[in-house]
Specification:
binds fe (ii) ion; 12 strands; alpha+beta; Jelly Rolls; binds 2-oxoglutaric acid; 4-stranded antiparallel β-sheet
Length: 329
Amino acid sequence: MAQTARSENGVPSFSFCFNRRFSSEELASSFQTYGLVVLRDFFSREKLASFQKTLVHLFHLQGMKIGEYRQLLQAAIQSESDDGKRLSKINEILEPRDKEALYQVQKMLPSSLGLKSLFWDESFQSVCRSLLGSEEATCLLDGPALFVNRPRTERLLYKWHSEAHYYPKRRRFLNIWFPLFDSKSEHNGAMSVKLGSHHLHDVPFAEYRGYNKDSQDKANYFIQYEVPENFVAGLPEFYTEASPGDLVIFHRKLIHRSNPNFSDEYSFAGVARVWDPSQDLTLAGNLAVTPYGGDIGRPDLVVAAETEIPTETTKGTFVNSCPEVLHES
Ligand SMILES: O=C(O)CCC(=O)C(=O)O
Ligand SMILES: [Fe+2]
Protein backbone atom coordinates (compact mmCIF):
# COMPACT_ATOMS: atom_id res chain seq x y z
CA MET A 1 0.00 0.00 0.00
CA ALA A 2 0.91 3.62 -0.23
CA GLN A 3 3.85 5.17 1.50
CA THR A 4 5.06 2.28 3.58
CA ALA A 5 8.74 2.88 2.82
CA ARG A 6 10.11 5.60 5.06
CA SER A 7 13.67 6.70 5.73
CA GLU A 8 14.89 7.28 9.32
CA ASN A 9 13.74 10.91 9.39
CA GLY A 10 10.19 9.84 8.61
CA VAL A 11 10.19 11.31 5.11
CA PRO A 12 8.85 8.88 2.51
CA SER A 13 11.63 7.75 0.22
CA PHE A 14 10.84 6.28 -3.18
CA SER A 15 12.96 6.06 -6.26
CA PHE A 16 10.76 8.61 -7.99
CA CYS A 17 11.30 11.25 -5.26
CA PHE A 18 14.27 13.53 -5.90
CA ASN A 19 16.02 16.22 -3.94
CA ARG A 20 17.51 19.26 -5.68
CA ARG A 21 20.23 17.29 -7.50
CA PHE A 22 19.26 14.82 -10.19
CA SER A 23 20.30 13.98 -13.71
CA SER A 24 17.88 14.19 -16.60
CA GLU A 25 18.49 10.46 -17.26
CA GLU A 26 17.45 9.50 -13.70
CA LEU A 27 14.39 11.67 -13.97
CA ALA A 28 13.35 10.27 -17.35
CA SER A 29 13.86 6.70 -16.20
CA SER A 30 11.72 7.13 -13.03
CA PHE A 31 9.05 8.94 -14.99
CA GLN A 32 8.98 6.13 -17.51
CA THR A 33 8.84 3.40 -14.84
CA TYR A 34 6.40 4.84 -12.32
CA GLY A 35 4.57 7.55 -14.29
CA LEU A 36 5.52 10.36 -11.95
CA VAL A 37 8.40 12.20 -10.34
CA VAL A 38 8.33 14.17 -7.09
CA LEU A 39 10.90 16.97 -6.94
CA ARG A 40 11.34 18.02 -3.31
CA ASP A 41 11.97 21.66 -2.44
CA PHE A 42 11.82 22.73 -6.06
CA PHE A 43 10.19 26.18 -5.98
CA SER A 44 11.85 28.95 -3.99
CA ARG A 45 10.02 30.25 -0.91
CA GLU A 46 9.87 33.76 -2.36
CA LYS A 47 8.33 32.70 -5.64
CA LEU A 48 5.80 30.46 -3.95
CA ALA A 49 4.84 33.19 -1.45
CA SER A 50 4.27 35.62 -4.30
CA PHE A 51 2.13 33.01 -6.13
CA GLN A 52 0.05 32.50 -3.00
CA LYS A 53 -0.43 36.24 -2.44
CA THR A 54 -1.61 36.73 -6.02
CA LEU A 55 -4.15 33.93 -5.60
CA VAL A 56 -5.59 35.42 -2.43
CA HIS A 57 -5.72 38.82 -4.09
CA LEU A 58 -7.76 37.57 -7.07
CA PHE A 59 -10.22 35.60 -4.91
CA HIS A 60 -10.61 38.58 -2.57
CA LEU A 61 -11.24 40.93 -5.48
CA GLN A 62 -13.96 38.61 -6.79
CA GLY A 63 -15.74 38.42 -3.43
CA MET A 64 -15.52 42.17 -2.79
CA LYS A 65 -17.32 42.91 -6.07
CA ILE A 66 -20.48 41.44 -4.60
CA GLY A 67 -22.03 44.05 -2.34
CA GLU A 68 -23.81 41.70 0.03
CA TYR A 69 -20.62 39.79 0.96
CA ARG A 70 -18.29 42.74 1.42
CA GLN A 71 -18.67 43.17 5.16
CA LEU A 72 -18.47 39.48 5.83
CA LEU A 73 -15.35 39.14 3.70
CA GLN A 74 -13.68 42.19 5.18
CA ALA A 75 -14.18 40.92 8.72
CA ALA A 76 -12.99 37.43 7.80
CA ILE A 77 -9.85 38.68 6.10
CA GLN A 78 -8.92 41.12 8.86
CA SER A 79 -9.04 38.40 11.49
CA GLU A 80 -6.44 36.32 9.60
CA SER A 81 -2.78 37.08 8.94
CA ASP A 82 -2.03 33.83 7.12
CA ASP A 83 -2.65 33.76 3.34
CA GLY A 84 -3.84 30.16 3.32
CA LYS A 85 -6.39 30.88 6.04
CA ARG A 86 -7.54 33.97 4.15
CA LEU A 87 -8.10 31.99 0.99
CA SER A 88 -9.99 29.36 3.00
CA LYS A 89 -12.25 32.00 4.55
CA ILE A 90 -13.05 33.54 1.17
CA ASN A 91 -13.90 30.11 -0.22
CA GLU A 92 -15.96 29.28 2.84
CA ILE A 93 -18.03 32.45 2.42
CA LEU A 94 -18.55 32.00 -1.33
CA GLU A 95 -18.96 28.21 -1.56
CA PRO A 96 -22.49 28.05 -0.09
CA ARG A 97 -23.59 31.44 -1.46
CA ASP A 98 -22.11 31.87 -4.91
CA LYS A 99 -20.42 28.93 -6.60
CA GLU A 100 -20.56 30.82 -9.88
CA ALA A 101 -18.30 33.58 -8.50
CA LEU A 102 -15.77 30.91 -7.48
CA TYR A 103 -15.98 29.23 -10.86
CA GLN A 104 -15.42 32.54 -12.65
CA VAL A 105 -12.38 33.53 -10.61
CA GLN A 106 -10.90 30.11 -11.43
CA LYS A 107 -11.23 31.06 -15.08
CA MET A 108 -9.09 34.16 -14.50
CA LEU A 109 -6.18 32.31 -12.93
CA PRO A 110 -4.57 30.97 -16.13
CA SER A 111 -4.46 34.53 -17.49
CA SER A 112 -2.58 35.91 -14.50
CA LEU A 113 0.95 37.01 -15.33
CA GLY A 114 1.74 36.97 -11.62
CA LEU A 115 0.75 33.30 -11.29
CA LYS A 116 2.41 32.25 -14.53
CA SER A 117 5.68 33.80 -13.41
CA LEU A 118 6.22 30.84 -11.04
CA PHE A 119 7.11 28.93 -14.20
CA TRP A 120 9.54 31.53 -15.61
CA ASP A 121 12.27 29.45 -14.16
CA GLU A 122 15.04 27.75 -16.14
CA SER A 123 15.04 24.60 -13.95
CA PHE A 124 11.30 24.13 -14.33
CA GLN A 125 11.41 24.67 -18.06
CA SER A 126 14.38 22.44 -18.69
CA VAL A 127 12.87 19.59 -16.64
CA CYS A 128 9.67 19.88 -18.69
CA ARG A 129 11.51 20.11 -21.99
CA SER A 130 13.61 17.10 -21.18
CA LEU A 131 10.66 14.92 -20.04
CA LEU A 132 8.63 15.95 -23.08
CA GLY A 133 11.54 15.79 -25.51
CA SER A 134 10.53 19.25 -26.72
CA GLU A 135 12.29 22.41 -27.72
CA GLU A 136 11.49 25.75 -26.17
CA ALA A 137 9.38 27.04 -29.05
CA THR A 138 6.85 24.20 -28.87
CA CYS A 139 6.61 23.94 -25.07
CA LEU A 140 3.26 25.49 -24.08
CA LEU A 141 1.80 26.19 -20.65
CA ASP A 142 -1.88 25.66 -19.87
CA GLY A 143 -2.72 27.05 -16.45
CA PRO A 144 -2.13 27.35 -13.63
CA ALA A 145 -5.41 26.58 -11.91
CA LEU A 146 -6.25 26.00 -8.27
CA PHE A 147 -7.47 22.67 -6.95
CA VAL A 148 -9.54 23.31 -3.81
CA ASN A 149 -10.19 20.46 -1.39
CA ARG A 150 -12.80 21.65 1.11
CA PRO A 151 -13.15 19.60 4.32
CA ARG A 152 -15.71 16.81 3.98
CA THR A 153 -16.95 18.00 0.57
CA GLU A 154 -17.40 15.76 -2.46
CA ARG A 155 -18.32 18.46 -4.98
CA LEU A 156 -14.72 19.28 -5.86
CA LEU A 157 -13.31 15.76 -6.09
CA TYR A 158 -12.38 13.57 -9.04
CA LYS A 159 -12.79 9.78 -9.20
CA TRP A 160 -10.03 7.61 -10.74
CA HIS A 161 -9.19 9.15 -14.11
CA SER A 162 -6.48 9.74 -16.65
CA GLU A 163 -5.77 13.21 -18.00
CA ALA A 164 -5.36 11.61 -21.44
CA HIS A 165 -9.15 11.14 -21.48
CA TYR A 166 -9.73 14.86 -20.75
CA TYR A 167 -7.29 15.88 -23.52
CA PRO A 168 -7.87 13.09 -26.03
CA LYS A 169 -6.33 14.88 -29.01
CA ARG A 170 -3.07 15.60 -27.16
CA ARG A 171 -0.23 13.14 -27.38
CA ARG A 172 2.53 14.95 -25.55
CA PHE A 173 1.85 16.67 -22.24
CA LEU A 174 2.84 16.66 -18.60
CA ASN A 175 0.64 17.15 -15.56
CA ILE A 176 1.97 19.58 -12.98
CA TRP A 177 0.73 19.42 -9.36
CA PHE A 178 2.10 21.20 -6.26
CA PRO A 179 0.82 21.84 -2.71
CA LEU A 180 0.10 25.41 -1.69
CA PHE A 181 0.07 26.97 1.81
CA ASP A 182 0.19 23.63 3.72
CA SER A 183 1.49 20.13 3.26
CA LYS A 184 -0.68 17.51 1.62
CA SER A 185 -1.22 14.25 3.45
CA GLU A 186 -3.50 11.26 3.20
CA HIS A 187 -5.57 12.86 5.99
CA ASN A 188 -6.21 16.18 4.24
CA GLY A 189 -6.85 14.73 0.80
CA ALA A 190 -3.55 14.42 -1.07
CA MET A 191 -4.20 13.12 -4.57
CA SER A 192 -3.36 9.45 -5.07
CA VAL A 193 -1.92 7.80 -8.15
CA LYS A 194 -1.73 4.18 -9.31
CA LEU A 195 1.97 3.62 -9.93
CA GLY A 196 2.72 2.25 -13.38
CA SER A 197 -0.88 2.66 -14.61
CA HIS A 198 0.36 4.77 -17.53
CA HIS A 199 1.56 1.49 -19.09
CA LEU A 200 -2.00 0.13 -19.38
CA HIS A 201 -3.48 0.09 -22.85
CA ASP A 202 -6.96 0.91 -23.94
CA VAL A 203 -8.42 1.93 -20.58
CA PRO A 204 -12.15 2.73 -20.86
CA PHE A 205 -14.07 5.27 -18.78
CA ALA A 206 -17.61 6.28 -17.83
CA GLU A 207 -18.67 9.88 -18.44
CA TYR A 208 -21.08 11.69 -16.10
CA ARG A 209 -21.41 14.84 -14.05
CA GLY A 210 -21.37 14.52 -10.25
CA TYR A 211 -19.51 12.41 -7.72
CA ASN A 212 -21.94 9.70 -6.71
CA LYS A 213 -25.61 8.77 -7.08
CA ASP A 214 -26.82 11.69 -4.89
CA SER A 215 -24.93 14.31 -6.85
CA GLN A 216 -25.39 12.82 -10.32
CA ASP A 217 -26.15 15.48 -12.97
CA LYS A 218 -26.00 18.29 -10.39
CA ALA A 219 -24.88 21.67 -11.68
CA ASN A 220 -21.51 22.85 -10.35
CA TYR A 221 -20.19 19.32 -10.04
CA PHE A 222 -17.26 18.14 -12.16
CA ILE A 223 -17.52 16.08 -15.34
CA GLN A 224 -16.00 12.71 -14.51
CA TYR A 225 -14.35 10.33 -16.95
CA GLU A 226 -14.21 7.59 -14.36
CA VAL A 227 -11.96 4.56 -14.77
CA PRO A 228 -13.54 1.84 -12.57
CA GLU A 229 -11.30 0.79 -9.71
CA ASN A 230 -11.03 -2.85 -10.86
CA PHE A 231 -9.09 -1.72 -13.94
CA VAL A 232 -6.25 -0.56 -11.71
CA ALA A 233 -6.65 -3.17 -8.96
CA GLY A 234 -3.31 -4.69 -8.05
CA LEU A 235 -1.30 -1.58 -8.90
CA PRO A 236 0.24 0.17 -5.87
CA GLU A 237 -1.51 3.34 -4.74
CA PHE A 238 0.73 6.26 -3.81
CA TYR A 239 -0.56 9.32 -1.96
CA THR A 240 1.29 12.38 -3.21
CA GLU A 241 2.22 13.53 0.28
CA ALA A 242 4.24 16.68 -0.30
CA SER A 243 5.05 20.09 1.16
CA PRO A 244 4.78 23.60 -0.28
CA GLY A 245 7.79 24.02 -2.60
CA ASP A 246 7.63 20.40 -3.82
CA LEU A 247 6.68 19.71 -7.42
CA VAL A 248 4.92 16.60 -8.73
CA ILE A 249 5.02 15.89 -12.48
CA PHE A 250 2.95 13.00 -13.77
CA HIS A 251 2.35 11.21 -17.05
CA ARG A 252 -0.69 12.04 -19.19
CA LYS A 253 -1.91 8.43 -18.87
CA LEU A 254 -1.24 7.93 -15.14
CA ILE A 255 -4.48 7.04 -13.37
CA HIS A 256 -5.09 9.19 -10.30
CA ARG A 257 -7.90 10.51 -8.12
CA SER A 258 -8.75 13.07 -5.48
CA ASN A 259 -9.23 11.97 -1.90
CA PRO A 260 -11.62 13.31 0.71
CA ASN A 261 -10.25 15.91 3.10
CA PHE A 262 -10.85 14.53 6.62
CA SER A 263 -9.17 17.48 8.33
CA ASP A 264 -10.90 20.68 9.45
CA GLU A 265 -8.81 22.89 7.17
CA TYR A 266 -9.02 23.51 3.44
CA SER A 267 -6.17 22.06 1.42
CA PHE A 268 -5.04 23.58 -1.87
CA ALA A 269 -2.91 22.47 -4.82
CA GLY A 270 -1.73 24.33 -7.90
CA VAL A 271 -2.20 22.44 -11.17
CA ALA A 272 -1.08 23.07 -14.74
CA ARG A 273 -0.29 21.22 -17.98
CA VAL A 274 2.82 21.66 -20.06
CA TRP A 275 2.20 20.47 -23.60
CA ASP A 276 3.65 20.21 -27.05
CA PRO A 277 1.26 20.23 -30.04
CA SER A 278 3.88 19.05 -32.59
CA GLN A 279 2.43 15.58 -33.11
CA ASP A 280 -1.27 16.22 -32.54
CA LEU A 281 -3.70 15.40 -35.33
CA THR A 282 -5.52 18.68 -34.98
CA LEU A 283 -5.04 22.33 -35.79
CA ALA A 284 -6.99 23.34 -32.67
CA GLY A 285 -5.21 25.68 -30.30
CA ASN A 286 -7.32 24.71 -27.30
CA LEU A 287 -5.62 22.00 -25.21
CA ALA A 288 -8.98 20.48 -24.27
CA VAL A 289 -10.41 20.17 -27.79
CA THR A 290 -12.58 17.06 -27.62
CA PRO A 291 -14.62 14.74 -29.77
CA TYR A 292 -16.67 13.67 -26.74
CA GLY A 293 -19.89 14.82 -25.07
CA GLY A 294 -23.41 13.67 -24.45
CA ASP A 295 -22.64 10.13 -23.29
CA ILE A 296 -24.82 8.57 -20.60
CA GLY A 297 -22.62 7.39 -17.74
CA ARG A 298 -23.18 6.69 -14.04
CA PRO A 299 -20.96 6.79 -10.95
CA ASP A 300 -19.35 3.45 -10.09
CA LEU A 301 -20.32 1.44 -13.19
CA VAL A 302 -19.10 -2.15 -12.92
CA VAL A 303 -17.67 -4.18 -15.84
CA ALA A 304 -14.86 -6.73 -16.14
CA ALA A 305 -11.38 -5.34 -16.69
CA GLU A 306 -10.59 -7.87 -19.45
CA THR A 307 -12.10 -7.38 -22.86
CA GLU A 308 -12.91 -11.12 -23.03
CA ILE A 309 -13.30 -11.44 -26.76
CA PRO A 310 -13.38 -15.22 -27.16
CA THR A 311 -10.57 -16.62 -29.31
CA GLU A 312 -10.93 -19.88 -31.27
CA THR A 313 -9.42 -21.84 -28.34
CA THR A 314 -11.53 -20.23 -25.60
CA LYS A 315 -14.65 -20.64 -27.76
CA GLY A 316 -14.02 -24.39 -27.79
CA THR A 317 -13.54 -24.50 -24.01
CA PHE A 318 -16.64 -22.43 -23.46
CA VAL A 319 -18.79 -24.66 -25.66
CA ASN A 320 -17.38 -27.86 -24.14
CA SER A 321 -18.04 -26.71 -20.61
CA CYS A 322 -21.54 -25.43 -21.41
CA PRO A 323 -23.44 -28.17 -23.26
CA GLU A 324 -26.71 -26.23 -23.02
CA VAL A 325 -25.20 -23.43 -25.14
CA LEU A 326 -24.09 -25.99 -27.71
CA HIS A 327 -27.60 -27.36 -27.69
CA GLU A 328 -29.21 -23.92 -28.19
CA SER A 329 -27.08 -23.00 -31.17
O1 LIG B 1 -5.49 17.16 -6.46
C1 LIG B 1 -6.41 16.43 -6.77
O2 LIG B 1 -7.16 15.93 -5.93
C2 LIG B 1 -6.69 16.04 -8.20
C3 LIG B 1 -5.86 16.80 -9.17
C4 LIG B 1 -5.97 16.26 -10.55
O3 LIG B 1 -6.78 15.44 -10.88
C5 LIG B 1 -5.01 16.75 -11.55
O4 LIG B 1 -4.15 17.57 -11.21
O5 LIG B 1 -5.08 16.31 -12.71
FE1 LIG C 1 -6.50 14.84 -12.91
